[in-house]
Amino acid sequence: MGRWWPAALLGCAVAVVAVLAAAVVECAVTYDKKAVLIDGQRRILFSGSIHYPRSTPDMWEGLIQKAKDGGLDVIQTYVFWNGHEPTPGNYYFEERYDLVRFVKTVQKAGLFVHLRIGPYICGEWNFGGFPVWLKYVPGISFRTDNEPFKTAMQGFTEKIVGMMKSENLFASQGGPIILSQIENEYGPEGKEFGAAGQAYINWAAKMAVGLDTGVPWVMCKEEDAPDPVINACNGFYCDAFSPNKPYKPTMWTEAWSGWFTEFGGTIRQRPVEDLAFAVARFVQKGGSFINYYMYHGGTNFGRTAGGPFITTSYDYDAPIDEYGLIREPKHSHLKELHRAVKLCEQALVSVDPTITTLGTMQEAHVFRSPSGCAAFLANYNSNSHAKVVFNNEQYSLPPWSISILPDCKNVVFNSATVGVQTSQMQMWGDGATSMMWERYDEEVDSLAAAPLLTTTGLLEQLNVTRDSSDYLWYITSVDISPSENFLQGGGKPPSLSVQSAGHALHVFVNGQLQGSSYGTREDRRIKYNGNVNLRAGTNKIALLSVACGLPNVGVHYETWNTGVGGPVVLHGLNEGSRDLTWQTWSYQVGLKGEQMNLNSVEGSGSVEWMQGSLIAQKQQPLAWYKAYFETPSGDEPLALDMGSMGKGQVWINGQSIGRYWTAYADGDCKGCSYTGTFRAPKCQAGCGQPTQRWYHVPRSWLQPSRNLLVVLEELGGGDSSKIALAKRSVSSVCADVSEDHPNIKKWQIESYGEREHRRAKVHLRCAHGQSISAIRFASFGTPVGTCGNFQQGGCHSASSHAVLEKRCIGLQRCVVAISPDNFGGDPCPSVTKRVAVEAVCSPAA
Ligand code: GAL
């Protein structure tokens, strides 16, 4: 029993609200060393992160339903301060930021909420969730014992808690919120701050607990979380974690389902076998709360991506993909894990496990309680299968895997044995390439005619833009004498070196782009050095500094600089070098097209656009493109193929789809095994391809026809005629199931006949609105290979293809039991056989 929560709060009390005369079920949420208790019951809870602004409100219900179908109990989200309070005291809770609607949507689905208020949230979100204005509060210092910061943090936390309370959203009021979070991963940071860090975290805990939500608070990665706040683990594995007090439950707030991507980097994937292994390992150790970060990653629309260089896609290789489609086998294999663990729930929450050794790298974790016995058999060896004996029975454990036995006898799940289907996704065009494009060139020549400000020397970018735009122009002029050697046909052309704190830099001289340079997420700084075309007389040097998402993590990142810090030096003149750093510089925030709102329907009418063939004639950087398109039919998710363009931003009907950049992924895609300790760079994909080619276009942002598409291209040289809309859908589904697959499920035993349930089965399922149109491969025997390149093995039943065709063609889903009877006999008795199938999914007729 959680000694920090009043006994009176235990259990659910039914209160009759006099005014409405309606019964409201008020749930106390408490905790003890075994678990979080809801209605007085210890629970094993599976949770998944879905961040509301990373999808559109019309997607929420579907996403949450898919999470529920996947066996989740809880939806976890951060709260996004900079989205909610764009200027001090002016709040925004509409559209994608409609937090109350999101929480109520979860409630409607019958799930709980873990609300991570932060307000520091990291999350690869711009500025870690802090509004940029916060940096300019006098005397502020982020995330430490600093009065201005604490006042602001308390103000926002109170605002959110107050809002949730007034809508009765805490479980103590009958709502779905069972847990909250204050701060985020402060532990490592706090250590750097010493006593001030300790004072701050104590204050934060006290402040949060004082808000009296009636539900526990959590701090992740904070070993010093003061009572009654629960400290929780984040990571790829958390089985080594124990809470800081023996009376707190073992919670995992971020089980990383994959990883985020950076422009120029590869896609980071995490095999589900390893994720399931990690979760089972945590549960067998006594863990009782697991949150997948992310369960649906979604999209960093607009300029919300953190950084620098976090991609617009925040897909995360999550069980639900960026577009809201189920990713298989991740979703279903985890679902089976959840069902298996839930079958053990009573035993897991009642007793501590007894651990016995079954071999050099094998163990049994046994939970023997009066209500039953559950066992987890683990093989930590990453190279070989293990045969173990447990309770006088033999079990075979694949490498790096855990088998779950809810009755200490029958294996209902093995983390490395994936019996569910794999889906392959495709992006297919819809003829939108026939868009009629028009172009408007940003006027670089007239820059500095009316500068925002003029001063001596170089200014820090954020101090000038306050992040109202990614772009800041630094403009100066240099006088060049006609007697310069390089103008007389002698010597090398002059060059310009520019040092910038990041993130990207385009160098213009007399309106012409001379070159560009980019930092990286690891090192944001830029050292540009390139030849420049100078003429006799006055030359205008215009440096366009581009921010690509503000930092979201790092000690006092609010003090980190962005933009041209200098020195800026001209080399190769007769005098040698000329330092321009301390000249007079003029500043212009944003591009002209931004100021004219060219991205909106109204604003785009305010300039003359170049039409038709003229567009292709002259390629120029900083060009705006616009076109109209019709909404593609159907309900598949949509994406824009930007693979033909360079770098910039894109809008549809005035809504920002995000930043795009056709940066090619540099990495190591040699393939990977699920076995062995996982790290983010272990399983990479997409080497040599654009890190992000497709950009999610939410259907709810479209009107039936004449949708305005506006593209701002920084680099020039792109081909707008190749920009196209694509539909995303499942192209094929595969299954590869062994006849001794452990899907002899106890929950099936209860509902099916003995004979039927004892057979392993192949389940194939195309997406909603699709049906199976062809069987590309089928083999009952000993097939080899993986989805997309299966081949027959030494044993093969000749009827395999015909059987699958007969059972599946024309259907959205089909099930075929793996038995010789179904395939006209046994092609190789005494050999363990499998069925491997690849089925093509097409729009249903
Ligand atoms: C965690 C952090 C999350 C997110 C994650 C990486 O450390 O708490 O907010 O940034 O890393 O995706």
Automatic annotation (TrEMBL):
<dbReference type="InterPro" id="IPR043159">
    <property type="entry name" value="Lectin_gal-bd_sf"/>
</dbReference>
<dbReference type="InterPro" id="IPR048913">
    <property type="entry name" value="BetaGal_gal-bd"/>
</dbReference>
<keyword id="KW-0732">Signal</keyword>
<dbReference type="InterPro" id="IPR041392">
    <property type="entry name" value="GHD"/>
</dbReference>
<dbReference type="GO" id="GO:0004565">
    <property type="term" value="F:beta-galactosidase activity"/>
</dbReference>
<keyword id="KW-0052">Apoplast</keyword>
<dbReference type="GO" id="GO:0005773">
    <property type="term" value="C:vacuole"/>
</dbReference>
<dbReference type="GO" id="GO:0048046">
    <property type="term" value="C:apoplast"/>
</dbReference>
<dbReference type="GO" id="GO:0030246">
    <property type="term" value="F:carbohydrate binding"/>
</dbReference>
<dbReference type="Pfam" id="PF21467">
    <property type="entry name" value="BetaGal_gal-bd"/>
</dbReference>
<dbReference type="GO" id="GO:0009827">
    <property type="term" value="P:plant-type cell wall modification"/>
</dbReference>
<keyword id="KW-0378">Hydrolase</keyword>
<dbReference type="InterPro" id="IPR019801">
    <property type="entry name" value="Glyco_hydro_35_CS"/>
</dbReference>
<dbReference type="GO" id="GO:0009505">
    <property type="term" value="C:plant-type cell wall"/>
</dbReference>
<protein>
    <recommendedName>
        <fullName>Beta-galactosidase</fullName>
        <ecNumber>3.2.1.23</ecNumber>
    </recommendedName>
</protein>
<keyword id="KW-0964">Secreted</keyword>
<comment type="similarity">
    <text>Belongs to the glycosyl hydrolase 35 family.</text>
</comment>
<dbReference type="Pfam" id="PF01301">
    <property type="entry name" value="Glyco_hydro_35"/>
</dbReference>
<feature type="signal peptide">
    <location>
        <begin position="1"/>
        <end position="21"/>
    </location>
</feature>
<dbReference type="InterPro" id="IPR001944">
    <property type="entry name" value="Glycoside_Hdrlase_35"/>
</dbReference>
<dbReference type="InterPro" id="IPR008979">
    <property type="entry name" value="Galactose-bd-like_sf"/>
</dbReference>
<dbReference type="GO" id="GO:0019388">
    <property type="term" value="P:galactose catabolic process"/>
</dbReference>
<dbReference type="Pfam" id="PF02140">
    <property type="entry name" value="SUEL_Lectin"/>
</dbReference>
<dbReference type="InterPro" id="IPR031330">
    <property type="entry name" value="Gly_Hdrlase_35_cat"/>
</dbReference>
<dbReference type="InterPro" id="IPR017853">
    <property type="entry name" value="GH"/>
</dbReference>
<feature type="domain" description="SUEL-type lectin">
    <location>
        <begin position="756"/>
        <end position="842"/>
    </location>
</feature>
<dbReference type="Pfam" id="PF17834">
    <property type="entry name" value="GHD"/>
</dbReference>
<dbReference type="InterPro" id="IPR000922">
    <property type="entry name" value="Lectin_gal-bd_dom"/>
</dbReference>
<keyword id="KW-0326">Glycosidase</keyword>
